[in-house]
Amino acid sequence: MFAVRRAARCMSTPHPAASRRLVSSSAPCRSDALFAHRDTSYNNPKVKSRRVAFMQTTCNMPSYLNHPSFVLQIPFEFAPDNLKRAKEIIARYPPQYKKAAVIPLLDLGQRQNKGWTSISVMNYVAQLLEMPPMRVYEVATFYTMFNREPIGENFVQVCTTTPCMLRGSTEILDTVCNHLGGIKPGETTKDGKFTVIEVECQGACSNAPMLVVGDDFYEDLTAESTIKILDAFAKGQKPAPGPQSSRKTSENAAGLSSLTSKPYGPGQYCTPEFS
Questions:
Q1: pLDDT tens digits, the chain, 275 residues: what are they?
Q2: What sections of the chain are H helices per DSSP?
Q3: Does residue 198 contact residue 31 with C-beta atoms inside 8 Å?
Q4: d(CA 158, CA 140)
Q5: b vs e for 88-115, b when ≥16 Cβ sit within 10 Å of the residue's Cβ?
Q6: Greatest CA separation found in the chain?
Q7: How far apart are CA 158 and CA 200, in angstroms?
Q8: CA atoms of 54 and 45, how far apart (whole Å)
Q9: Contact partners, residue 199, CB within 8 Å, separation at least 6
Q10: Counting beta carbons within 10 angstroms of the beta carbon of residue 214, is it exposed (0 to 12), middle (13 to 18) or buried (19 or more)?
């Protein structure tokens, strides 16, 4: 009885505002906007695709394709070469498990769709794999490799994880943003040429700091070499990827400290019976 009264008093006593932690007070990172869906005028399905309507009336398609979510405002379908590639990918899996091709097909669709995965892309992949659209949405919203908002012509990803941070990635990120007109991570330049985001480890720790443009790694960066890379892309050129220093790969920047002598030849220094 005492416990019940005590609980009632605790519930009736208002807590001071200072002790409350409101979820709405947590500011999201701008980069998150690329990975979280927002209904917009350019990415909001409202009109049923003629292709889907035709296939629904002429083919024995699953009932979930009649769901309101499976309508398209901006039609999308694979170009002939990508459709051929998609069929090759699907053929790698048993027919009953072809939904396992959802990630490579979304990647293929994103590449064709100027670097971002719209709802139309996801609905098309769902149609191709005969999956409920929601299952495709779940994949596309889980993996940050799928951009949920349009991006610039050059997608710049600056790694700021610990190894890169210790090697000066903060300066590299500031250099990129300032050189591109003062934009912030998650934003696109006014001319639509660059989108910049901050990313986690890209697996090039021994060549830190680094950034990624498209599919290419640019490593061993300084503020000066970073500006040169950005200027080249701005002119429509593609600078040579890899280390931007004197290194060719990930060898010791100070020179070899081991394996400096001539390697042993076949049978050298072996006992007579093995020579």
A1: 555 555 555 555 555 554 554 544 445 555 555 555 556 677 865 544 444 454 455 555 455 445 444 444 678 999 999 999 999 999 999 999 999 999 999 999 999 999 999 999 999 999 999 999 999 999 999 998 999 999 999 999 999 999 999 999 999 999 999 999 999 999 999 999 999 999 999 999 999 999 999 999 999 999 999 999 999 999 999 999 999 998 888 888 777 788 788 888 777 778 777 76
A2: 2-12, 50-58, 80-90, 102-112, 119-129, 133-142, 162-166, 169-179, 223-234
A3: yes
A4: 22
A5: ebbeeeeeeebbebbeebbebbbeebeb
A6: 93
A7: 8
A8: 18
A9: 144, 157, 158, 159, 160, 212
A10: middle
Q: List residues bridging with 218 in a β-sheet.
A: 211, 242
The token pair that represents 217 in the structure block: 């790694």
Closest CA to 169 of 207, 201, 209: 209
